[in-house]
UniProtKB/TrEMBL annotation, chain A:
Location of this chain's protein in the cell: Nucleus
Keyword Chaperone: no
Protein's recorded name: DNA-directed RNA polymerases I and III subunit RPAC2
UniProt xrefs under PANTHER family: DNA-DIRECTED RNA POLYMERASE I,II,III, DNA-DIRECTED RNA POLYMERASES I AND III SUBUNIT RPAC2
PROSITE patterns membership: RNA_POL_L_13KD
Organism encoding this protein: Gasterosteus aculeatus aculeatus (three-spined stickleback)
GO biological process, one term: transcription elongation by RNA polymerase I
Family: Belongs to the archaeal Rpo11/eukaryotic RPB11/RPC19 RNA polymerase subunit family.
Domain DNA-directed RNA polymerase RBP11-like dimerisation: 23-96
From TrEMBL, chain B:
The keyword Cytoplasm is assigned to this record: no
GO BP annotations listed: DNA-templated transcription
HAMAP family named among the record's database cross-references: RNApol_arch_Rpo3
Source species: Gasterosteus aculeatus aculeatus
Protein name: DNA-directed RNA polymerases I and III subunit RPAC1
GO CC field: RNA polymerase I complex; RNA polymerase III complex
Family annotation (SMART domains): RPOLD
Domain named DNA-directed RNA polymerase RpoA/D/Rpb3-type: residues: 65-340
Length: 119, 347
């Protein structure tokens, strides 16, 4: 839903001078706890991630500061990419399981149709 | 898994799997099973292990409400689904109201506000977002509706009746008076389904003879984050499955009191002794903590990864479709950042 002709950043990377590629703060625009917390959980579950956290800098601005610090000299974009991929795979699996469960429900009993009576 | 008498659970297992509801606080709230926290446990993300433990059980499903269990997932992701159901699944709602004539008692802006909140039964997946704010709006992103009604005196009313229903015609403006005006090729695309408000008995305004409403409305696609009128759910919520364990045998009069401390159907007296029959029904009021002799007989906890979702739809989309769309929205968010990572070469 970005405006035409305007280049609005969606993802920025902020890195301290002199630090290695493993300690990076990503700024995700137009995001909040919905993606922030779930992504933080997936990246915390990855191996070789020393630190992972996110903050909403100000509630009036819809952006989050997402920090990843890795162990060893692994670039921080790696756990970010793998976290996003794994979260996407989790969603796909949840979707599949839900569809299967729905089809079982429809098979067992035709859905209980409650007619909405006008008051 | 129902509470057994004096079930001993390893302290570590308890911290990992349960949220304990104590007298003054709630313990073990946060997820702690990250790699490195517990020696001897391999907590790295394992998709196979997740797929093995994960399940969804649909408990109740009808046109407008759905209750289902999501087991084996973390609170962060379950909450993401809940937040998306409330705020990021798009719907169509009245956005622009062009008022040609409003001689009713209801002010223009109040009328427009009320009209915006009326749920419109149109599948939002068949429409697109309106890209620029200035344009008139085309057939792919706008639905045009019309409300044109005039109140008049009923010539056939008896001389001395005082009932407005008899005296006036069209004195109550309901949502059934909102008519769809197809634009462009909408008449062909939606040939078999009429676009109208979900409920036809929503009272919008009241009129008296001589007052009239002549209003054209444009519906656009939006999300709940922008305005609550776009939210597709009456509400979407979840609770965690309670885990009630009796730490000592409770019998006789104590058992009767214990039974009354929990919701109906949770505790049953079998052979004078109290047993936990169905902890799912409990609302965790912690009433037993107010009785000194029952305080230490029960352990009340919740399963950390068992979510009982309740989704109530406003009627625009059925609840199972809503949950499906919510999961897809989260996937799209991930894909957007993945393509962003891949496209720009970040230094």
């Amino acid at each position: 839903m970005a405006g035409e002709g305007e280049k609005k950043p969606v993802l920025e990377m902020v890195q301290a001078d002199g630090a290695d590629e493993g300690c990076v703060t990503f700024v995700l625009h137009n995001e909040d706890h919905t993606l922030g917390n779930s992504l933080r959980y997936m990246i915390m579950k990855t191996a070789d991630v020393d630190f992972c956290g996110y903050t909403i800098t100000h509630p009036s601005e819809s952006k989050i500061n997402f920090r990843i610090q890795t162990r060893g000299s692994i670039p921080a974009t790696e756990p970010l990419r793998s976290g996003l991929n794994e979260l996407s795979d989790v969603c796909q699996h949840v979707l599949n399981t839900f569809q299967v469960s729905l089809s079982i429900t429809y098979e067992i009993n035709c859905p209980v149709v409650v007619q909405h009576t006008s008051v | 898994i129902f509470g057994k008498m004096a079930e001993t659970m390893n302290i570590v297992e308890e911290i990992r799997n349960r949220v304990i509801l104590g007298e003054y606080n709630v313990k073990n709230v946060h997820t702690s099973d990250y790699p490195g926290n517990y020696p001897g446990y391999d907590d790295t993300w394992d998709m196979q292990k997740f797929q093995k433990n994960f399940r969804i059980d649909i408990v109740h499903l009808d046109e407008s409400t759905m209750e289902f269990d999501m087991v084996g997932i973390d609170a962060a992701i379950a909450n993401a689904f809940r937040r998306i159901l409330l705020a990021e699944v798009p719907t169509m709602a009245i956005e622009k109201v062009f008022i040609y004539n409003n001689t009713s008692i209801v002010q223009d802006e109040v009328l427009a506000h009320r009209l915006g909140l009326v749920p419109i039964k149109a599948d939002p997946r068949l429409f697109e977002y309106r890209t620029s704010a200035e344009e008139e709006g085309s057939e792919i992103d706008t639905i045009q509706l019309q409300l044109k009604i005039k109140c008049s005196r009923n010539p056939r009313a008896t001389k001395d009746s005082a009932d407005p229903r008899e005296l006036y015609l069209n004195h109550m403006v309901y949502s059934r008076d909102i008519k769809w005006v197809p634009i462009g090729n909408q008449a062909d695309v939606f040939a078999d389904s009429v676009i109208a408000p979900v409920h036809d008995d929503i009272l919008i305004a009241q009129l008296r003879p001589g007052q009239e409403l002549d209003v054209i409305m444009h519906c656009v696609k939006g999300i709940g984050q922008d305005h609550a009128k776009f939210s597709p759910v009456a509400t979407a919520s979840y609770r965690l499955l309670p885990d009630i364990t009796l730490l000592e045998p409770v019998e006789g009069e104590r058992a009767e009191r214990l039974k009354r401390c929990f919701s109906r159907g949770v505790i049953d007296i079998q052979d004078v002794v109290a047993k936990v029959v169905d902890s799912r029904l409990d609302t965790c009021s912690r009433e037993f903590l107010r009785h000194d002799d029952l305080k230490n007989a029960v352990k009340l906890a919740r399963f950390r990864d068992h979510f009982i979702f309740t989704v109530e739809s406003t009627g625009i989309l059925p609840p199972d479709v809503l949950v499906t769309e919510a999961i897809k929205v989260l996937m799209v968010k991930c894909q957007r950042f993945l393509s962003e990572l891949d496209s720009t070469d970040l230094e």
